[in-house]
Design brief:
Helices cover 26% and strands 36% of the residues. The chain has helices at 15-22, 26-41, 57-64, 76-86, 103-106, 129-140, 220-229, and strands at residues 5-6, 47-51, 68-73, 93-97, 113-118, 143-153, 163-171, 174-183, 191-202, 205-216, 232-238, 244-245, 254-260. The strands form 2 sheets. An 8-stranded mixed β-sheet has the order 4-3-2-5-6-13-11-12, sandwiched between helices.
């Protein structure tokens, strides 16, 4: 059935679609994150903070596992969706509207957090090193002594080639199929282009959506220099399953454990 094409805003303006297509992998991702955190902070429970929490898929899974959670996001539509899904619990969670560089005021009064986490390349939406440094400064002010910041990202490899991911999800009679293409910079630049095509099937028919955006790239050396310049240190590197690996090991996706260099 022919459908409509959307080239503006993207998935982030459709919280339900974002949640449906991303939620299936959440349990495995949190198992990996939990393995990382246990290795550095013990079994917990812990107080978790998620910058750019989106639809709250991680937060509600963490809350179901007995942790206290908080998150912030710049998009009120995402936060409204997350609040509805978290409302099954009467306490132990909090949400605030804030961007990547100004969360401290919005989260004032919530206390310090044991773990902050920012998975699946969300940090790479920030356009430059100064923005990342400002974000790290804000997270520093929200962590308890000895707290961790776990960042999930792809680092640019010299042999990087175009790549593709396919994601599918369903909920009731809603079906979402998403194809994401990643085009590394080929001109010496620092921006990876991400091209997204999505097919959404509902009882009333199928629609097609497409959009594109850029993610800032970092080599291992560039990432190390940025972290060090911002006053943090790379404590450990873990693979996507949460297993520790040697720093500099080529990985398709990695979980970086950071701590303020006090």
């Amino acid at each position: 059935m022919p459908g409509s094409v959307d080239t503006g805003g993207g998935l982030y303006l459709e919280p339900a679609l974002y949640d449906v297509v991303n939620t299936p992998g959440t349990a495995a991702e949190l198992t990996a994150l939990g393995r990382v955190v246990r290795g550095h902070r013990g079994r917990g429970p812990h107080r978790w903070l998620e910058p750019a929490c989106g639809s709250g898929r991680y937060l509600r899974s963490l809350r179901a596992r007995g942790h206290q959670v908080a998150g912030y996001d710049p998009l009120e539509g995402m936060l409204a969706y997350a609040r509805r899904r978290l409302s099954r619990w009467t306490d132990g969670w909090a949400l605030a509207q804030a961007d990547f560089t100004t969360p401290a005021v919005a989260l004032a009064g919530l206390g310090a957090f044991d773990v902050a986490f920012c998975p699946v390349n969300s940090l790479r939406h920030l356009p430059d090193d100064a923005s990342v440094a400002a974000h790290l400064a804000q997270v520093r002010g929200l962590l308890a002594p000895g707290g961790l910041y776990v960042v999930g990202l792809d680092l640019l490899r010299p042999d990087a080639l175009p790549d593709e991911d396919v994601w599918t999800g369903s909920r009731g009679r809603l079906r979402v199929h998403e194809v994401m293409q990643y085009l590394p910079p080929d001109d010496g630049g620092r921006t990876e282009q991400v091209v997204v095509q999505m097919m959404v099937t509902r009882p009333r028919g199928t629609t097609h959506h497409g959009w594109a955006y850029g993610l800032r790239t970092y080599t291992d050396l560039q990432w190390s220099a940025l972290v060090r310049h911002a006053g943090w240190r790379r404590v450990a590197t873990h693979d996507s399953a949460g297993r520790a690996v040697a720093a500099g090991t080529p990985l398709a996706y990695q979980l970086e454990v950071l701590q303020p260099d006090r």
